[in-house]
Design brief:
With 310 residues, the protein is α/β, with parallel strands linked by helices. It is built from 11 helices and 9 strands. It has helices at 14-31, 55-66, 88-95, 111-116, 134-147, 165-174, 193-201, 212-215, 235-241, 249-252, 283-306, and strands at residues 44-49, 70-73, 101-106, 123-128, 154-158, 180-184, 205-209, 221-224, 260-262. The protein has a 5-stranded parallel sheet. The longest helix is centred in the last third of the chain and has 24 residues, at 283-306. The two termini are 14 Å apart.
Length: 310
């Protein structure tokens, strides 16, 4: 399959997604430190993060190291030439001569696509503003596949559906698996109409709910997201909606006993800590699954550019 640049889940076919998830499953013993693997020995991955990150950044680094490769990191913006006025295009031009692949996170939607036009090595989008986050989507799908089911899934997407790039990416990927999508969010944070229309055009049933309680009753998965303070230009607007939707033990009493609660993390207070101890909680497993999935992504990107490594 052709991977090379990974910019948006809108570009994926089901066959491509299934190939990545199958390879990720094979890499799980390596991620769990049960096996060793050096198939990316001699390769260098560059991390260009213009926004804060913990899981995405560290899981990419872990994935590359466990595959025998090396990592170089631009570090914080404050210590880079960005502070001198260097453009993203020039940064990418230079760094692509240092590394065999680049993982880019940027606050501006479309930044990854633009970077791909100037890079001589694969660009992997690690989040571009309110746009897309394809590798998060892949690890979300892998989590659902391993902990629940993918085909015929009923999933509730809740919280910040307007700015949440993880939700935007996941919607398009789920359209390959005959999913039923429930939406629950504050009125100010509804899923953009263009995405809802795209989903309907793909034959996906989308239902809006006013409350989280009503949305989750028949769900196999609840995908909760935090209200993103950094996306709000007005702090007063953030404070108004930040506590409207929470996952509590009481909420879970009316759900399917095997429903899984997922969250891309970090969480703030949208999932009460007591939920962590229930069989519903799946978000920490979800974070782990980022390692084997990103191993698969790195291997496939390197193979497309440099030839067979497996």
């Amino acid at each position: 399959m052709k991977l090379n640049h990974m910019l948006s889940t809108k570009d994926f076919s089901r066959k491509q997604i299934d190939s990545i998830l199958s390879l990720a499953e094979k890499f799980e013993p390596v991620a769990l430190r049960e096996k060793r693997c050096n198939i990316l020995d001699g390769k260098i991955l560059s991390l260009l993060f213009f926004e804060p990150s913990t899981r995405t950044k560290m899981s990419f680094e872990t994935a590359m190291l466990r595959l025998g490769g090396k990592v170089i990191d631009m570090g914080s913006i404050e210590t880079s030439s960005v502070m001198k006025g260097e453009s993203l295009a020039d940064t990418v031009r230079v760094v692509s001569s240092y590394a065999d692949s680049i993982v880019l996170r940027h606050p501006k939607e479309g930044a990854a696509f633009m970077a791909s036009e100037f890079s001589t090595v694969p660009i992997i989008n690690a989040g571009d503003g309110a746009g897309h986050h394809p590798t998060q989507t892949l690890l979300d799908l892998h989590t659902i596949r391993r902990e629940s089911k993918l085909d015929g899934l009923t999933i509730t997407l809740a919280g910040d559906l307007k700015y949440g790039r993880t939700v935007h990416s996941l919607c398009y990927a789920l359209s390959h698996y005959n999913a039923r999508i429930n939406l629950a969010s504050p009125p100010e944070l509804v899923l953009p109409d263009r995405i809802i229309q795209d989903l309907k055009n793909r034959g996906i049933k989308v239902t809006k709910f006013d409350t989280l309680e009503n949305a989750v009753k028949d769900s196999d998965v609840l995908y909760m997201t935090r209200i993103q303070r950094e996306r709000f230009p007005d702090p007063a607007e953030y404070n108004k909606v930040s506590k409207e939707m929470r996952v509590t033990l009481k909420l879970l009493e009316n759900c399917k006993p095997d429903m899984k609660v997922m969250h891309p993390l970090p969480r703030v207070d949208e999932i009460e800590p007591e939920v962590d101890k229930t069989p519903h909680a799946c978000y920490f497993k979800q974070a782990f699954y980022g390692i084997p999935v990103r191993m698969a992504v790195l291997v496939m990107a390197m193979e497309e550019k440099y030839g067979k490594v497996l």
